[in-house]
Specification:
With about 140 residues, this protein is mainly alpha-helical. The chain has seven helices and no strands. The termini are far apart.
């Protein structure tokens, strides 16, 4: 059941290129794009206990959690400006947990390497270090 529900969510909410069309039409599109991805990351971590692989899931049209994370990455680290509506400031430092967990799940140090580029993050004292110890 969890497999069907979560896979359907990814299939509907994320396109092949990683965009989340339902979130991009909002007035706080950057925040809600992160919020949705972060909720799916939470689900992916929990689903492991049910032997469901959301981290590695790919829909029939190429939809994947990883592509959504990768789409948001350049905006999160400030390499590119968010091109859509965001009517209030968004704390890009919230991506710390998302990138840390992606680095663990995908065993990819690239996600860990971008964390210092996030604003408003004290890497040494963040509780993310306790909840999601880095592996690189």
């Amino acid at each position: 059941m969890m497999k069907n529900i979560t896979h359907r969510r990814i299939d509907v909410q994320i396109l092949r290129n990683g965009t989340e069309p339902l979130e991009l039409v909002r007035t706080k599109s950057f925040f809600y794009s992160w919020f949705n991805v972060n909720a799916l990351v939470d689900l992916a971590d929990l689903a492991r206990f049910c032997d469901v692989d959301i981290w590695g899931y790919k829909g029939q049209e190429g939809q994947a959690l990883r592509s959504a994370i990768d789409f948001l990455l350049p905006y999160a680290i400030g390499v590119e400006a968010w091109p859509l509506e965001q009517i209030e400031p968004f704390d890009r430092g919230l991506f710390f947990s998302t990138f840390r967990r992606a680095s663990i799940a995908y065993e990819d140090p690239m996600y860990e390497k971008v964390i210092p580029l996030l604003p408003n993050v004290d890497i040494l004292t963040s509780r993310n270090n306790l909840m999601f110890p880095k592996i690189f």
